[in-house]
Amino acid sequence: MVKIFDSMSKTKKQLTTNKVVNLYLCGPTVYNYIHIGNIRPVIIIDVLCRLLINEKYKINYVHNITDIDDKIIDQAKKEKTTEVKISNKYFQAYLNDLKTLNILLPTKMPRVTNYISENIKFIESLIALKNAYIVKNDVYFEVDKVSSYGALANKKLDELIPNYRTNDNREKKSPFDFALWKDTEIGINWESPWGKGRPGWHTECVTFIENLFDGKTINFHGGGVDLKFPHHENERVQFLVKHNQSLANIWWHNGHVNLDNEKMSKSLNNVILVKDFCQKYQPNVLRYLILNHDHQQPINFTEQLIVEAINTIKKYQTILQLWSYQIFIKTIKIKEKNKYDKKYYQLVINYLSDNINTTNVLTTISNMIKELHDKINKNDFGEQSQTVFQTLVFTFKILGFDFKFGNYSKSIQTKIKTWEELKAKKDFKKADLLRTELQDLGILPKN
Fold first, then answer.
1. How far is 251 from 1, CA to CA, in rounded Å?
2. CA–CA separation, 439 vs 445, rounded Å?
3. 33-68 burial: b if 16+ Cβ within 10 Å, else e
4. pLDDT at position 444, please?
5. CA–CA distance from 42 to each of 29, 82, 98, 160 (Å)?
6. Distance between CA atoms of 202 and 157, rounded to whole angstroms?
7. Which of 59, 127, 149, 341 keeps 20 to 30 A from 248, CA to CA?
């Protein structure tokens, strides 16, 4: 039984009562490279998906791509190209980041531009239900008609300060009414019953959910805490009005990522891009930094935190290299592959099933590594020791780490045997050169 903390009820709720799980995670607006704050929810949901797959659930995971937006228009002007080329360029860059970080691809990654007619139909239905109205060529959702508006973020309209934008239509019935269709001929636009324009952001997401999950309440809807209000709230009320049921059983939100105690944001120009971080350090380091924190709390990235993560990943890589090397040189036959230590395995599954508790799983990894070092020192590579090692490997995989170890090619095997022979002959000069080569190849840990 997998339980996740629900932002609406403020309780942990069972994710599903059957073997099918419907998940939706708000994706990026593809106008630039993503930063490490953007990737946090994606990494957490990647771990959740790996858990569900391990537990034999069928996953229908939708992760949307916003490929029309004012930011895309502005970036196209800046790069002196078209909006289509900008969105395609940065969508591909996003896919590259997912691959670099060993993130499982969602079941579907729909793009807004492929769902314009569905957006128009959805807006027409809200107008017919008298929960939306037309002002000139704009269409707005009438917030006052939904008594529960603000419930997701625990906000009440009379407590909110109206946030007028300079381009807001002053003929709206309420300053809180939000756009379902925007009247514009700037950038890519489409014909509609109300004139040329494009869908509002909040409607794009709820249209995906309606069409890709057959208009039914989904198990899980996630995203960053900054999306809780107004974006997720506005999705929620549109679906509620249209279908008279909840959009999601569980609303999940991850905490902010800060850089030296300041929220990371492109508008503040204090971001670390995923591609740059992974190139400077390595993908496993970023994944560790994300997973070593309660996902609903903020992370404050500092140089010290990064150094600690680098050292931890070295420890992980070292035990994998040492164990694999010892198994090879001692010609130990693995008695049964993929056989796990029951105690450690159950701890890992239980922690992840309890609100994706990755921090406790990382503690369990530390305990397994400590035990394996003790086994190596005692020259104990028996069946019980092997099950602990295989459980460690399993745990790395379910957390999405991507380590290279073992499975030596014939040329590597020859180098290892030569190195052992040189040491036995006390030809340390040649042995040291070969050891350095094996270290560079990732066969032996570096000091």
1. 18
2. 6
3. bbbbbbbbbbbbbbbbbbbbeeeebebbbbbbbbbb
4. 87
5. 14, 28, 9, 31
6. 18
7. 127
Q: In the prediction, which pLDDT does 164 show?
A: 42
| CA distances (Å), origin 54, targets 70, 228, 345, 359, 363 | 41, 30, 12, 19, 21
In this structure, what token pair is assigned to residue 414? 């020859």
User: Per-residue confidence at 166, pLDDT binned at 50, 70, 90?
Assistant: very low
| Closest by Cα among 280, 312, 336, 334 to 396 | 312
* Contact (CB, 8 A) for 139 and 180: yes
Instruction: Tell me how far the alpha carbon of residue 62 is from its chain's centroid.
Output: 12
Ramachandran area for residue 161 (φ above 0: left; ψ -120 to 50: alpha; else beta): beta
Q: Which residues pair with 176 in a beta bridge?
A: none
439 within 8 A of 446, measured Cβ to Cβ: yes
- Residue 320 contacts residue 372 (beta carbons within 8 Å): no
Peptide bond into 162 cis (omega under 30): no
pLDDT digits (tens, 9 = 90+) for 265-305: 776 778 899 999 999 999 999 999 999 999 999 999 999 99
Residue of 25, 419, 430, 77 whose CA lies nearest to 252: 25
What is residue 175's predicted lDDT score, i.e. its pLDDT? 86
Q: What is the mean pLDDT of residues 65-93?
A: 96
- Is the pTM higher than 0.90? yes
pLDDT given at position 170: 65
H helical segments located in 233-382: 233-243, 274-280, 283-291, 303-329, 342-353, 358-377
In tens, the pLDDT along 99-137 reads: 999 999 999 999 999 999 999 999 999 999 999 999 999
- The burial class, CB within 10 Å (0-12 / 13-18 / 19+), for 383 is exposed
Model pLDDT for residues 318-347, shown as the tens digit of each residue: 999 999 999 998 888 887 888 999 999 999
